[in-house]
Design brief:
A: about 180 residues, alpha+beta, 4 helices, B: about 450 residues, Pnp Oxidase, Chain A, seven-stranded antiparallel beta sheet
Chain lengths: ~180, ~450
């Protein structure tokens, strides 16, 4: 139910890098709904659902998992442009974060990625059920086939807090 | 569009029950993805997104009109990817009002009232719809077959020979065939400024005779913009009482609404749907349904009611013409038998044509004037039978020669009398005919100034 609220951009710090806080890492690795976007050479956007996310210890390297059968164009566009935007939203709180990166690429799956996606699927259902949705529906939204999982990884370049609140509509993004 | 599903086939995805993801891209090639609560169905090849804030999505589509939306079916989890092209923004009119009302319901439901404010309806052409593979579940319940209900109800309406039964059959049919037990029909007052309730179903008090301002609340906006307005969650901005109070606060006493008769709506309608009744290019009134539970009315119900309202409109016009048959020679003058008992004082205030039975308010306006005329003729000329035609041309009433509302006003009057008096009965005695029956004598008092 979240729609285009205010944007707080957390730009690069003095060291020239954007990192996630521990709390933000916990949030995007929790039972959130995740969607990823890229674009082709003609700037036509592609978008797909994401079934899990993991963040490296440096809190800058973000990896998402998609089902290749659902995300063909996205995989192709990431390979072509390296550009990616990923939005994370927790249905129960509407809290929303968007992450962007310019060096996105497909990487090999890590051990345990299928289990990670399965855990994420259950965690998402746990958040959705109290809102009145049925369990089969909640699980189906994050359905995937393990053999079709692909991993896309990028270095965090921009971070936007897009949660609704009293400052809705204010755009606090600094001029780059 | 290519060979994917049609937009009509995936309308449940456009109810706002599950947020959609929209991806855009700026001129420099940086993609953006965000969630939207409302992807609104416009027609078979267009959708509209609500523009509430100037944000990155908005900035991007103005620079690069291509957008891609990912939708989930709210029951089956079927996935659809829509290729969109931004075409224009509408900041007023039927589409804007329809989205504004829907957004108010969503905002209220999510605790965002006052945060969500519609600035425009961004209209996108749908270039392609892709059914994305993935796990799906069977729908929890099959959608009801409204077209079968509409067919049966249309046959019943076609069998009606007078307006009162047309309204009754329509509202009974909504309850019986469509599980819409709370419904009402409002007709447009000749001033064009207000609607009056001529029939209702499912309320403790019928509210017949109550009035509602055009241009306010869900009913008034549906009338003003001649477009269906639907809300899936209770929204205080569209509360009936609020619309009426705001109207009263802004208008002079001369244009006041009927306020003695309470409007019949539910105190907390979580689902509401108002559709205009149109015929011969004119607005005749509004058909309104409501429900205590949220999300009861979707696009299918909206279409169904629009179809029903069209039938209703055409039937209203046809029956109004049929009702205008003059009395035969010698008809209309059977001598009433003398009545015994304590006379009932009937007071009439010509200033606003209001009528009181004893101390009880009955009605005002055109219906009040008609009632006073009928009573006067009854007392002065001992007549009990009257025709619509004679009322229409009666110089004492000064009705507009082509007042489509006469028959409806008479229905209103009959209904009010049935609800408020045991001593005076007004009934149909044939097509375009009325019979006035008194069970006790009346004492008529005309009060010059109130």
């Amino acid at each position: 139910m979240v729609q285009n609220f205010y944007l707080f951009q957390f730009g690069p710090d003095l060291m020239g890098s954007t990192t996630l806080s521990d709390e933000q890492v916990r949030f995007i690795e929790s039972g959130v709904s995740i969607s990823a976007a890229s674009r082709d050479v003609r700037r036509v956007p592609s978008v797909s659902k994401v079934v899990a996310c993991r963040v490296a210890a440096d809190r800058r390297q973000v990896t998402i998992l998609v089902d290749a059968a659902q995300a063909g164009q996205l995989l192709q566009d990431v390979a072509g442009s390296g550009s990616m935007a990923v939005v994370f939203c927790l249905p129960s709180s509407h809290r929303t974060l968007q992450l962007k990166g310019h060096d996105a690429r497909q990487v090999p799956l890590a051990d345990g990625d299928a289990e990670l996606a399965e855990r994420h699927r259950t965690a998402f259902a746990d958040d959705l059920l109290p809102l009145g949705y049925a369990l089969p529906f909640a699980l189906a939204t994050h359905g995937f086939q393990a053999e079709r999982l692909r991993a896309l990884s990028f270095t965090l370049s921009d971070l936007f807090e897009q949660t609704p609140g009293p400052n809705a509509g204010m755009r606090l993004e600094p001029e780059a | 569009m290519s060979g994917g599903p049609s937009l009509d086939a995936i309308r449940p995805c456009l109810e706002g029950a599950v947020p959609a993801a929209i991806a855009t891209c700026d001129a420099a090639g940086t993609p953006n993805v965000t969630l939207v609560s409302q992807v609104h169905y416009v027609d078979p090849s267009h959708v509209a997104l609500s523009f509430q804030f100037f944000n990155k999505t908005r900035e991007n589509i103005l620079a690069n009109p291509q957008a891609t939306v990912f939708l989930l079916h709210p029951q089956t989890s079927a996935r659809y990817r829509l290729a969109l092209l931004y075409r224009r923004t509408e900041t007023e009119g039927p589409l804007f009002e329809s989205m504004k009302a829907k957004l108010a319901g969503i905002a209220s439901h999510t605790g965002m009232s006052g945060v969500f404010r519609l600035l425009g309806a961004d209209v996108y052409q749908v270039l392609d719809i892709e059914h994305v593979v993935g796990e799906e579940v069977p729908p929890a319940q099959e959608a009801p077959c409204h077209i079968a209900g509409l067919s049966r109800l249309s046959q019943r309406l076609a069998g009606c020979t007078e307006l009162a039964s047309l309204f009754e059959q329509c509202l009974d049919g909504l309850a019986g065939f469509f599980a819409m037990p709370q419904a009402m029909i409002l007709l447009l007052d000749p001033t064009g400024q207000k609607l009056y309730t001529v029939a209702s179903h499912g309320y403790a008090q019928s509210g017949v005779g109550s009035e509602f301002p055009v241009g306010r609340g869900i009913i008034g906006v549906a009338a003003q913009f001649r477009t269906p307005i639907r809300i899936a969650h209770m929204a205080s901005e569209y509360a009936y009482s609020r619309a009426i109070h705001e109207h009263l606060a802004e208008t002079g006493v001369g244009d006041r609404l009927e306020t003695e008769i309470a409007f019949p709506g539910l105190a907390e309608p979580h689902s509401q749907l108002s559709v205009p009744i149109l015929a011969a290019g004119r607005l005749l009134g509004v058909l309104h349904v409501e429900h205590a539970e949220p999300h009861r009315f979707g696009y299918d119900e909206e279409d169904c009611l629009m179809g029903l309202a069209s039938l209703l409109g055409a039937s209203i016009l046809a029956l109004q013409q049929a009702a205008d048959i003059p009395l035969e020679e010698g008809e209309g003058a059977p001598a009433p038998t003398p009545l015994l008992g304590v006379p009932l004082a009937v007071r009439y205030y010509p200033a606003n044509s209001s009528v009181f039975l004893g101390e009880d308010y009955l009605i005002k306006g055109v219906a009040g004037a008609i009632f006073w005329r009928l009573l006067s003729l009854h007392v002065e000329e001992q007549r009990s039978e009257f025709s619509n035609r004679e009322l229409r041309v009666d110089p004492a009433l000064k009705l507009p020669e082509l007042d489509d509302n006469l028959e409806a006003r008479l229905i209103l009057l009959q209904r009010r009398l049935a609800e408020r008096s045991r001593d005076i009965i007004l009934e149909k005695s044939g097509r375009g005919r009325l019979r006035l029956l008194l069970k006790r004598p009346v004492l008529l008092q005309e009060v010059a100034a109130r």
